[in-house]
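A further point concerns the way the authors explain their paired sequence and structure data. Showing the layout once, in full, would remove most of the difficulty. For illustration, here is how one protein appears when written out as sequence plus structure tokens:
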Amino acid sequence: MESDDSERQKKLEAGKEKLKLFQKKKTSTGTKKKKKKDRSSTSGSAQSPSPGRERRRRSSSQDRAAAKIANLEAALALEEKVPKQDGEDVEVEEISQADTDRDAPSIASELGSPIPFDAEQEQNSQSGSYVSGSEYTSGEEYSENELKNRTQELEEELTAKKAALKQISRENADLKGKLELMLQDQSGGSVIKDLSRQVEEMRESLQMKQSILQDINKENQDLRAKLEQGEQNKATPNGGQVEELKVNLNAKQKSLDELNKRNEQLEAENVNLKKQLSSPQGVALQSDFSELENLKETLVEKEKALAKLQSENNELTQRLKSSRRR
């Protein structure tokens, strides 16, 4: 341990001596240059350097000397601050004259020269663009990227439209389910359905009765015309023809009586239905019927919206296909 400390101390002393020698050398070279300058000025030579050139030389040499001194002092200070580790030898790096020359380049050195402005302009004048950091993208690649972005936007819009279509389909299914439940409900929907069926049957029977009455009236008119014609011609008809006419007339009269009875029954049923509708239960049924109509209208509106969204979906699909072809 003591030998290591002594060796380290020796190296530090050697470094300090080198620094002192270098400083002495600097002062001696400065005095020599001054004496040489005095001799050249007294000799009156025509080849003496200009004052500006002499200042540049002096400043460059002073800068190099200052850099060397700074490097030596930094190395010595670093060496003194380095702690000694157990089991390891701490070596002091000897700084030579070549190291100091390399660490302090001259002002006119090409290593420290900046990039010319013309070269920078040439680099910046290249065609294309930079996308996502330093990645270079040409004009064709930029248009392709733009097309891809547009395609992605269309796909996202198409996905949103499909989601809206699914939502509307679910709402339509819910409305249809509610409508079926109302129709199956014994308290309201089934009664409304039964009443609607009775009204339709009554309308059909009335139409049938009206057509039958028209046919009977036509046949009666034909029979009367034939009788009147026979009386005018004073022709005595045969007994068989008279009996046939009587039978037909009686049959028609029976049919007419049956139709009148059926008409009376239907009128009575109509009166009963009106009474039922005017009762509190009928008022409740009317409200259920109005709600049923509202549901039907809502269903129609939803189907219209669904058709509109489907048309927009088809249009977006066509646009997406055309953009991909490009």
